[in-house]
Amino acid sequence: MSITTSFDVNRIRQDFPILSQTIRGRPMVFLDSAASAQKPRAVIDAMVGAMETQYANVHRGLHWMSERTTEAYEACRDAVATLMNARDRSEIVFTNNITGSINLMAHSYGRGILKPGQAVVISGMEHHSNIVPWQLLRDSHAIELRVVPITNYGELDMEAFEDLLRDGKVGLVSITHMSNVLGTVTPAERIVRVAHKYGAKVMFDGAQAIVHRKVDVQALDCDFYAWTGHKLYGPTGIGVLWGRKELLEQMPPFMGGGDMISSVTYEKSTWAQVPHKFEAGTPAILEGIGLKAAIDYVQGIGYDALAAHEAALTEHALARLSTIKGLTIIGQAQDRGGVISFAMDGAHAHDVATLLDRQGIAVRAGHHCAEPLMQRLNLDSTARASFGVYTTHEEVDALATGLERVRSFFK
Amino acid sequence: MKQTDDFADLYQEVILDHGRHPRHGKRLEAFDVTAKGDNPMCGDRVQVWVKLDNGTIGAVGFEARGCAISVASADLMVEAVQGRDPADTKALFEAFRDMARTGSCRHCAAELEAPLERLAPLSGVHEYPSRVKCATLPWHALIAALDGVKEATSE
Ligand SMILES: Cc1ncc(COP(=O)(O)O)c(C=O)c1O
Predict the structure, then answer these.
(1) Which of A31, A108, A213, A330 is deepest in the core (most CB within 10 A)?
(2) What is the Cα–Cα distance from A31 to A340, expressed in whole angstroms?
(3) Residue A69 gets which letter from DSSP?
(4) How close B141 comes to chain A (CA, Å)?
(5) Is A366 within 8 Å of B43 when comparing Cβ atoms?
């Protein structure tokens, strides 16, 4: 990988209007991109431009505006298909966020394809959105829920994973591709190989991973892959579920309504082809147009440059933060992305976050929607810094200096 | 623009001190009522034990797991409520909550001025709506205990 040759972060920053904001009279140091990323001008312009010049409902009208809007919206499906290297654009289902994608899976695949007595495997470092839908399925549909433990380094215990699959009862593995707390990137290819060996299908929660690396669903050989637009510099309100077409075709619909039918009578309705079978109601039209612009923006930079930039930042941050006395970095995975959780001796994560905020530095603090992981780590909460395409080395330095100040204040 | 990165206007010495060394941060062996408070959004937890003394609040102890603000608030609360009857305590809580939300108490009864002054170091949280709950959680637990309710969550 050629390191940052074509990458000028200061030029990138000019693409994000919000970064010129000041917080408490200081430049904003935004280290909370893993919660939601900022939006480039291209996304803003695409959405505003659509509202100002080209907007109507999609898939319905026979008039010019509707046709053009449908084209613009459906172009997002093509962009997503290319981004993920899907075999076919009809494998891309739009949802409202990844939480919607996983709930779709738990309802449609869980109730429609899995049989009572089968099991779903998740891991010990999932976001609540990849835990709770499966619990609801377990309780309503007699599906067993199994959890792969994590090691003290914050990596998946792959031996335990294989053990969980051995009895052949597992129908679906649904695991994060990158932890939003530990930054751990999970060994996706290996997970798929092992799961397929025992006849289980695999879905990844790619909410974090797709922001940091190229996701090629054919190379991964997985069966489903879900993510959320707002973390990839796109708007809120749109998420993605990619699935193998033959699987999507077997699955019953999740929500019923307009746009998802082929015909409706009181006796019986028939469903539209995939992906529309899963897309009831007026979709997130403007958000789709915005997400297309976000994908074009990311593709314009290129995942190689993006990953190299974040790897350099992460390395720099780990080096700087590890020199701060009393600061513990949570999670030491070999393969990791630009999300770093930490705890400070004698200071609660909320106090740390508030005192960083007073220096204009935005980090997240809390359980990060991953309470079972927190219990495993024996922590109530952590503070978390996360990086985006626009994050600079100077911002990482500001974090380190800010933390030194917090530490001396609490000592 | 003035840089307002000062730590001390939010974390005054009183808060740091009571947050680090709470005077009343222990379970009471002999008590009449107790309740837990839980802030599910951030994981802060507190339990409050109260010994009643002829209808007024006698000894109070608490155990808190949370940030400096929640621990300090619990400790300062204990000092503020001892000797008050439940109705009085609720009135003080309402005034304190108003102060935590807005930075000052706008319609405070004159007799509450003295105890509120003692609680005033916590008023800086009004800048952080999500952290107002850190300051009010111990009060929710106390009021729940006085009302005979076992558990409270911050609103
Ligand atoms: C790993 C992971 N999964 C799922 C989610 C949920 O995303 P959303 O709230 O957009 O559905 C998040 C982010 O909050 C996440 O980091």
Answers:
(1) A31
(2) 10
(3) H
(4) 19
(5) yes
CA distances from A85 to A18, A82, A91, A188 (A): 31, 5, 11, 16
All domains in chain A, ordered by first residue:
9-39+302-406 (3.90.1150.10), 45-299 (3.40.640.10)
Per-residue confidence in pLDDT tens, chain B, 155 aa:
344 457 888 898 899 999 999 999 999 999 999 999 998 777 789 999 999 999 999 999 999 998 999 999 999 999 999 999 999 999 999 999 999 999 988 778 888 888 999 999 999 999 888 889 999 999 999 999 999 988 887 65
If one counts the domains in chain B, the total is: 1
Residue A370: CB within 6 Å of ligand 1?
Answer: no
Class of residue A352 by CB neighbours under 10 A (exposed 0-12, middle 13-18, buried 19+)? buried
| Among candidates A366, A367, A409 on the partner chain, residue whose Cβ is nearest the Cβ of B7 | A409
Contact A386 CB / ligand 1 (< 6 Å): no
Judge if the upstream peptide bond of residue A149 is cis by omega within 30 degrees of 0.
no
Distance from CA of A25 to the nearest CA of B (A): 5
Closest residue in chain B to residue A22, using alpha carbons only: B1
> Exposed/middle/buried for A54, CB within 10 Å: 0-12, 13-18, 19+?
middle
Mutation target to probe the B interface, by most B beta carbons within 10 A, among A21, A132, A351, A381 is A351
Instruction: Say how many C-beta atoms besides its own lie within 10 A of residue A117's C-beta.
Output: 11
CA-wise closest residue to A118 among A163, A176, A168, A191:
A168
Q: Which residue of A has its CA nearest to B129?
A: A354
Q: Is A103 in the pocket of ligand 1 (CB under 6 A)?
A: no
Rounded Cα gap, residues A83 and B84, in angstroms: 65
CATH (domain of B37) = 3.90.1010.10
Residue A116, classed as helix, strand or coil, is coil
Q: Would the pTM of this model clear 0.90, i.e. be above it? A: yes
